[in-house]
Amino acid sequence: MKRRAPGAWITLNASYYCAPVGHPLKLVDDASLLLEGARGITQSLADLLSQDVDINPDDLAKALWAASVLTEMGQSSAEVAYSRICKMRNRIRNNDDAK
Predict the structure, then answer these.
(1) How does pLDDT run across 43-87, given as a tens digit for each residue?
(2) Gyration radius from the chain CA atoms
(3) 31 belongs to a structural domain
(4) Residue 8 lies in a domain
(5) Count of domains for the chain
(6) 93 within a domain of the structure (yes/no)
(7) 13-45, pLDDT tens digit by residue?
(8) Would you put residue 7 in left (φ > 0), alpha (ψ -120 to 50) or beta?
């Protein structure tokens, strides 16, 4: 996995950024979906590996990489949501102090 570019949500072959207009709660929903997908992949792999079947190592590596990417995306989405929630709280506090 490549290091993330500054401010990037995720960096694969290119860097991707969250839309600045996305509501934090939508980002939390996205994080939940992405992390649930990663959990599903890892649970399926765990179930498969506990059986006595031949597994293609290349396919296993790709599935683990996909789970890793989904996990990183989910974490990044949660981080951006948290940052936006903190900014919203600060704006509300500043507005209340100004009154």
Answers:
(1) 999 999 888 788 899 999 999 999 999 999 999 999 999 999 999
(2) 18
(3) yes
(4) no
(5) 1
(6) yes
(7) 888 888 888 899 999 999 999 999 999 999 999
(8) left
Burial string for 19-51 (b: 16+ CB within 10 Å, else e) reads: eeeeebeebbebbeebbebbeebbeeeeeeeee
Can you tell me which residue has the tokens 């996990």?
Answer: 71
* Cα–Cα distance, 89 to 99 (Å, whole number): 16
| CB proximity list for 45: less than 8 A, separation 6 or greater | 60, 63, 64, 67
1 in any annotated domain = no
Which run of H or of E encompasses 32?
helix 24-49
Burial (CB < 10 A; 0-12, 13-18, 19+), residue 76, is: buried
Q: Classify the C-alpha dihedral 84-89-92-94 as positive or negative.
A: negative
Q: Which domain holds residue 79?
A: 21-98
Q: What is the DSSP letter of 50?
A: T
